[in-house]
């Protein structure tokens, strides 16, 4: 059974990975310019194999755009997908074994202007 939670390290690793390519926030400042990305909800459950114990974590990444249409939001979402699935997310004390995308969708917010991209990723993580 895992002794430590990987969620904070995973968030830091994702922030480092994504912020090299786009504007990323944990808490969005007032009057922020669009587009930007936020690292959102996270869950963790125990994940065990015959050889070790670990955690299966999900993290939701949100993309925000006010570009008319979906092009800008989809472009950012594609970059998020590429970076998270092609570049290993690293953080101290843990090793990401696998990562996969579970969900990708765009929602038009009630203001009729903002496009909200939602991507959910599943990580299987072992303590190093």
Order of helices and strands: HEEEHEE
Oligomeric state of this protein: single chain
| Major sheet | 5 strands, mixed
Strand arrangement across the biggest beta sheet? 1-2-3-5-4
The shape is elongated
Tell me the Rg in angstroms.
15 Å
**In terms of structural class, how would the helical and strand content be classed?**
alpha+beta
* Arithmetic mean of pLDDT: 93
Structure summary, number of beta strands: 5
What separation lies between the terminal Cα atoms? 13 Å
Percent helix: 10-25%
Low-confidence stretches: none
Proportion of strand residues? 35-45%
Offer a quick outline of the entry.
The protein is α+β, with helices and mostly antiparallel strands and 128 residues long. Helix content is 23%, strand content 44%.
Describe the structure.
The mean pLDDT is about 95. This protein is α+β, with helices and mostly antiparallel strands and about 130 residues long. It is built from two helices and five strands; from the N terminus they run αβββαββ. Helix content is about 25%, strand content about 45%. The chain has a five-stranded mixed beta sheet.
């Amino acid at each position: 059974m895992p002794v430590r939670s990987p969620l904070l390290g995973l968030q830091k690793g994702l922030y480092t990975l994504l912020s090299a390519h786009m504007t990323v926030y944990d808490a969005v400042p007032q009057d922020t310019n669009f587009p930007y990305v936020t690292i959102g909800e996270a869950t963790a459950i125990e994940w065990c194999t015959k050889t070790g114990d670990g955690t299966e974590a999900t993290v939701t990444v949100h993309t925000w755009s006010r570009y008319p249409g979906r092009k800008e939001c989809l472009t950012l979402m594609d970059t998020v997908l590429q970076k998270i699935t092609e570049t290993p997310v690293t953080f101290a004390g843990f090793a990401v074994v696998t990562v996969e995308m579970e969900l990708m969708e765009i929602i038009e917010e009630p203001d009729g202007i903002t496009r909200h991209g939602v991507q959910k990723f599943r990580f299987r993580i072992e303590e190093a």
